[in-house]
Amino acid sequence: MYTRHTYLFISREGRERIFRELQEQGMLQQNYEQVLLPEICPPDVGRYACSGPDVSIPGIVRREEGHKRDGLIPVGFSSWQQPDGNKLRIPAFVAPSEIAAVFQPADVLEPLRRGQVKCERTTALCALSSLMEQENRALFSLGVWGSAAVELLTGYFYTREDSDLDILFTPSPASLNSVDAALILRDWMDIVIQSEHEFHVRIDVELSLPNGYGVSLKELFSHGHTVLAKGPADVVLLPKKEIFTLFDVAENEKHPNLVNVIKTTLN
C-alpha cells in the first residue's frame, strides 16, 4: 500500500491509457497532454538544462473519496501554474504494473543531501535548502511534496516566487521514545517560523504519526484540544493528547518535558 505524498512515475503505456480514458469520458482539458504525455507534447514551461532525458511527470498518491477501482491506485497529476493563475489537476487510477519508479518525500531530497543539486531558483527552494541544513537524521528526517518536489523530480520549473513550501517531518524511532521528543518538535517549529520570516514564504509542515496519519505541526501547537489528521483513506479529528500518546511518550513521570508542552497547547 502506498502512503500519502508518494510520487509514482508511470510508464508511457500507462499514461497513454489514462489519456485515452479521459478522452473517452469527455474529460480532457487544454494542456492535459503536456502533463500526461510530455514526450509527444513538450510542456510550455522552463526546465533545468542539467535535467535527464526522462521528461515524464509523476503522479502523487491521493485519497479517493468517491468510486474506488479494485486493484488500482488513485493518483493525481498536476501542472505548473497556467496563464490564468491556476494549476491543472488530473485525477486518475494506475495499475501496479504501470509503475516505473517510486519516490517517498524523503527520497526526493537525496540529491540535496549528497550535494548533487542546488535549490536557489525561487524563495521556496532557498528556504528548503536552508531547512535541509538543519536536518538531523538521528532525530528526524525531512521530506518534501508539492511544487518543490515535482521540480526536484523532473527539472521543470514548478515553483514560483509566491509558492508555498510543503515539508514532511518524520521523527526517528529513537527520538519517539526520547524524553526530549516534545522539545524536538517545538525546536523544529521555531526553525520553521524563523525560516518563514527570513525567506518570506509560507511553510507548511506535516508531522508524520506512527499510526499512518499526518497532522499540521502548526495546528498541533496552536490553541485547541483537537487537530485534523489526514490518513490514506479518511480525515479525522484527533485529540492532541492522543497524538502525543502515539509517540509513546505520554507517561508523566518519565516525560515531564512532554507533559509541559501538552499543558501549554491545551490551556
TrEMBL record:
Domain Phosphoribosyl-dephospho-CoA transferase MdcG N-terminal, first and last residues per copy: 55-105
Record-linked InterPro entries: MdcG_C, MdcG_N
Recorded superkingdom: Bacteria
Keyword Transferase found: yes
MF annotations from Gene Ontology: nucleotidyltransferase activity
Residue stretches making up the Phosphoribosyl-dephospho-CoA transferase MdcG C-terminal domain: 120-240
Keywords: Nucleotidyltransferase, Transferase
EC number from the UniProt entry: 2.7.7.66
Root EC class: transferase
Protein name stated in the entry: Phosphoribosyl-dephospho-CoA transferase
Protein species of origin: Saezia sanguinis
Source organism phylogeny: Bacteria, Pseudomonadati, Pseudomonadota, Betaproteobacteria, Burkholderiales
Underlying gene: mdcG
